[in-house]
């Protein structure tokens, strides 16, 4: 049964409205935070949030963390992991249902699928139908939009390591560094696969491994 494709029904109401607004907020923070500028003086990057790997330092607005201060990052990561563990233990459904990145992007992909292929019954009927022109067009438009969204997600992630203005300029000029190309391709493919096809299977497998690790 786990391998059978699920067809979620479109819903509405108070909780759905809250989730939609929260999704918009989280996506805006993710996609646009790297565009914020912060003046640091001549010779320093003016991107507010940036992990500057060549210079081995992290910029977060007025805060700068150098490579020899990595213990700050370690403390932050430990506190974040503990906070996430406590939050999911107490309010697991809030995290999984509203703020988990896998949930947010799966929700976007589902909306794209519904836009091109119709409601739940229409999608089931389309998948069960024989291959024809209508099916080819609807599936192609769905998959192409998924790939575009995945690529934009990858661009946004890389822009936290690569000045966003330089990144977009280099992408359009086909002069991106080889390491950035590898990250862009990898993140695009994984997002496309996880949010488009694996969906709830990712959560099921992660939950199973967490439960197994707790029992050990």
UniProtKB/TrEMBL annotation:
Molecular functions (GO terms): 4 iron, 4 sulfur cluster binding; metal ion binding
GO cellular component: plasma membrane
Sequence ranges assigned to domain 4Fe-4S ferredoxin-type in this UniProt record: 76-111
Pfam family, one: Fer4_5
Domain of life: Bacteria
Keyword vocabulary terms for this entry: 4Fe-4S, Electron transport, Iron, Iron-sulfur, Membrane, Metal-binding, Transmembrane, Transmembrane helix, Transport
Transmembrane segments: 21-38, 70-91, 141-162, 174-195
InterPro entries (alphabetical): 4Fe4S_Fe-S-bd, Electron_Trans/Redox
Protein name: 4Fe-4S binding protein
Organism: Candidatus Aquarickettsia rohweri
């Amino acid at each position: 049964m786990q391998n059978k494709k699920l067809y979620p029904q479109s819903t509405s109401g108070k909780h759905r409205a809250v989730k939609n607004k929260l999704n918009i907020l989280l996506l805006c923070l993710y996609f646009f935070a790297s565009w914020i500028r912060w003046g640091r003086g001549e010779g320093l990057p003016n991107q507010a949030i940036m992990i500057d790997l060549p210079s081995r330092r992290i910029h977060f607005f007025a805060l700068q963390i150098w490579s020899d201060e990595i213990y700050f990052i370690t403390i932050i990561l430990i506190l974040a992991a503990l906070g996430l563990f406590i939050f999911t233990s107490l309010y697991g459904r809030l995290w999984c249902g509203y703020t988990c990145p896998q949930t947010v992007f799966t929700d976007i992909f589902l909306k794209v699928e519904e836009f091109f292929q119709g409601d739940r019954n229409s999608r089931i009927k389309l998948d069960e139908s024989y291959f024809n022109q209508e099916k080819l067009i609807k599936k192609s438009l769905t998959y192409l939009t998924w790939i575009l969204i995945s690529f934009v997600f990858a661009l946004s992630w890389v822009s936290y390591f690569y000045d966003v203005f330089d990144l977009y300029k280099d992408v359009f000029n086909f002069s991106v560094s080889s390491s950035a190309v590898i990250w862009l391709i990898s993140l695009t493919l994984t997002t496309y696969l996880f949010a488009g096809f694996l969906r709830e299977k990712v959560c099921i497998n992660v939950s199973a491994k967490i439960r197994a690790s707790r029992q050990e």
